[in-house]
C-alpha cells in the first residue's frame, strides 16, 4: 500500500509542522500516514545503556505526540508508527521505495542560515526513491501559489505535474518559473558579454521552453491559473524568490551517474540550502 512517510522529531516546532503537513497530504491523497523515528546508530555505539534507554523513551514520546497531532488533522486518518535503530538515511531510503511522498523537517527560518538538520534533509532527499518534501519552520498561511521550476527536461515535467496537482488541490495559482544563467552562455563566463541580439534570441528561446513545457498542462487542466515567469539569472535565486511568496515550491533533481543516490542536482541542492517555503524535490 502506498503511504506518506514522515520523519518524527517533535523536540522543535518544525518537527510538528512537518507531521501536520504530512497528515494533510495523507488526507488529501486518501492514504496511510507512517510516522518514522530512527534512533541513530551512534547512540547504541556509545555503549551507554542508560543513554540508549532514555533516547528510546524520548522517541516513543515523540511518536505519541506526533500521532496526536496527525489525528487532530483528521481523526479517521490511518496512522502507523515505527521506531527503528540504525542509520537514518538507510531507513528513510528503504521506506521511500513504497512511499508516495517522504516528508522531513528543517529548522530553517528562511534565507541562508545553516542548520545540521538541513544537511540531514539534503542527504535524505538525495537517497530517496520517492519525492521528498522538506518542511521548514516558516509560516506560509498568508501566501498563495505553488511555484515550480521549469527546464524542459523529463524530470522537470514530473515536477510540473506534481506541482499542478498541488495547485489544483489547494485552489491556488501555479507559478511556473524558467530561469537561465547568462554567465554560462555565449562566453559570458569569460567576460565577453552578450549582445543585444543574442539576448533577444535567448529570451525568445526561454519563453519557448516555458510554453512548450506548459502546453500539455493547459490541455489537461484548462481551469488551472498559471503565472508564467521567465528570469535571466541564477535559477536558485529565481526559485527562492518565487518560493518566498508561495506556499509550496517544487523542483526536479538531476543527480546523475553512479553517485546519483547520494547527490542532488545543483539547483535542487541550492533551494534546499536556502529554504523559503515547504519544498518538494522530485526525481
Output the helix-strand order.
Answer: EHEHHEHEHEEHEHEHEHE
Q: Provide a count of the helices.
A: 9
| 3D shape | elongated
Q: Which CATH-level-2 architecture of the largest domain?
A: 3-Layer(aba) Sandwich
Can you tell me the residue ranges where pLDDT is under 50 for at least 5 consecutive residues?
Answer: 113-117, 186-191, 256-262
Kindly identify the CATH topology of the largest domain. Answer: Rossmann fold
CATH class of the largest domain: Alpha Beta
Radius of gyration over all CA atoms, rounded:
20 Å
With strands numbered from the N-terminus, the spatial order across the biggest sheet is 3-2-1-4-5-10-9-6-7-8
Description:
The chain is an alpha/beta fold. It has two domains: 138 residues, Rossmann fold; 142 residues, Rossmann fold, CATH 3.40.50.12370. Helix content is 45%, strand content 21%. The longest helix has 25 residues. The chain is elongated.
Topology diagram in text:
Blueprint: E1 3-7, H1 13-29, E2 32-40, H2 41-45, H3 49-73, E3 79-86, H4 88-96, E4 99-105, H5 116-127, E5 132-135, E6 146-149, H6 154-170, E7 174-180, H7 196-220, E8 226-232, H8 235-243, E9 248-252, H9 266-273, E10 279-282
Parallel strand pairs: 1-2, 1-4, 2-3, 4-5, 6-7, 6-9, 7-8, 9-10
Antiparallel strand pairs: 5-10
